[in-house]
Amino acid sequence: MREHRITGWRRGAPLLGKPDFVFRAAKLAVFVDGCFWHGCPRHARIPKTRVAFWKAKLARNAQRDREVKSTLRRRGWRVLRIWEHELAQRNEAQLLRRIRAALSGLG
Ligand SMILES: [Zn+2]
Predict the structure, then answer these.
(1) Beta carbons of 96 and 6 less than 8 angstroms apart
(2) pLDDT digit string, tens, across residues 45-90
C-alpha cells in the first residue's frame, strides 16, 4: 500500500477481531484471511484425516468471522476481508481497486 500511496492505515490497532489494517479516519477495518483457516472457496480443503475435527474447527472460524463483521458494522465500521491469495502480485491491481473503493465509501 505504501507503494501505491494509500495512506491513513496502521497495523495492529486495538479493534475487535484484530484487523490486519485499520483506517481509523475512514472507519475501515481490513482483514487478511488465510485461505485454509478461513475457508477460501478456491483453496480451502478439509484435510483427509480427523475430518470431523477440522469441519467443526473451520465452521467455528467462519462463525467468528461473521460475528466480528456484524459487530464492527453495528459500530459504524466498514469491513473489508481479503483472501491471502489476493495478496499475490498478479492480483494486486484488483485488490487495490477494492481497497480504494472501500475507502471512498463504495465498498
Ligand atoms: Zn485462497
Answers:
(1) yes
(2) 888 999 999 999 999 999 999 999 999 999 999 999 999 998 888 8
d(CA 68, ligand 1 centre) in Å:
20
Output the CA 3–ligand 1 centroid distance in Å. 24
Does the 9-103 domain belong in CATH 3.40.960.10?
A: yes
Question: From the CA of 40, how far away is ligand 1's center (Å)?
Answer: 5
For the chain, the domains span: 9-103
* Res. 106 pLDDT band, cuts 50 70 90: low
Q: Are 30 and 21 in contact (CB under 8 A)?
A: yes
What cell numbers appear for 90 in the block? Answer: 498478479
